[in-house]
């Protein structure tokens, strides 16, 4: 495997992971580490097994073989120290933005009144100070994402698992959300696994990009350190020579996998 980085202490360790669905082997023999405080992006062709891998780390899917540790403990079920953000919103339609953020804590046993008190500053931090009493159907897609992000971050997870969280947004809103995510992440540098099929998004956000091979039996085939300076503006960083060089290097590996994946789909 192509390897261009040195990792710190592991927040996630995956050893020899295989996941089968019936006779189909989605991922096979996967070894992967995510350092403490590292922002890792996972890219790969569509259907290669990115979500499968993330769901195993999240404890939502049992491995067929192999071992997975998150924050020093074997993963055996949904991990309470991890926060999840998926493409689909997890907002309750009958709750206001403020209460939806508070729900992150309520689900963990914090009384509603206390949870609301803690949720108020979060409205401001995600740029929704004037929208606390709106219901999800009264919010734009980007605003809902902000609520979703605050709902996860209010629980202060040490590990953030994100599965294409911004892919349904238009490009401008997406860049705003990516910058907001980086701004909040820089405050205390949680360990992150961020899945995307967009290589540019992966490079703009991450400390390291791992490339998965086309399925079946997908596995990591490249790991690239992203030495771009922080803080980063995700729209501006894309225009730099350095970014283009990194993109070219990773794309030269990813392109072949994308082609294989298309060929398999007939
Ligand atoms: N519950 C399941 N039962 C059967 N097959 C599954 C199941 N979940 C996933 N798969 C298959 O495993 C493979 C990997 O799926 P997965 O969703 O992990 O890929 P992905 O890389 O996240 O895809 P995408 O980029 O399209 O979101 C696919 O071929 C998919 O059809």
UniProtKB/TrEMBL annotation:
Alphabetically, the GO molecular function entries are: ATP binding; ATP hydrolysis activity
Q: Looking at the Swiss-Prot or TrEMBL record, what is one Pfam family this protein matches?
A: ABC_tran
Sorted alphabetically, which PROSITE patterns does this protein's record hold? ABC_TRANSPORTER_1, ABC_TRANSPORTER_2
Q: Where is the ABC transporter domain?
A: 12-239
Query: What is the top-level taxon of the source organism?
Result: Bacteria
Top EC class, one word? hydrolase
Mind listing the UniProt keywords for this protein, alphabetically?
ATP-binding, Hydrolase, Nucleotide-binding, Transport
- The EC number(s) given in the record are 3.6.3.36
User: InterPro entries this protein is in?
Assistant: AAA+_ATPase (IPR003593), ABC_transporter-like_ATP-bd (IPR003439), ABC_transporter-like_CS (IPR017871), ABC_transporter_ATP-bind (IPR050166), P-loop_NTPase (IPR027417)
Task: Tell me the CDD domains matching this sequence.
Answer: ABC_NrtD_SsuB_transporters (cd03293)
Q: Which SUPFAM superfamilies match?
A: P-loop containing nucleoside triphosphate hydrolases
PANTHER family found in the cross-reference section: ALIPHATIC SULFONATES IMPORT ATP-BINDING PROTEIN SSUB (PTHR42788:SF13), TAURINE IMPORT ATP-BINDING PROTEIN-RELATED (PTHR42788)
Protein name in UniProt: Taurine import ATP-binding protein TauB
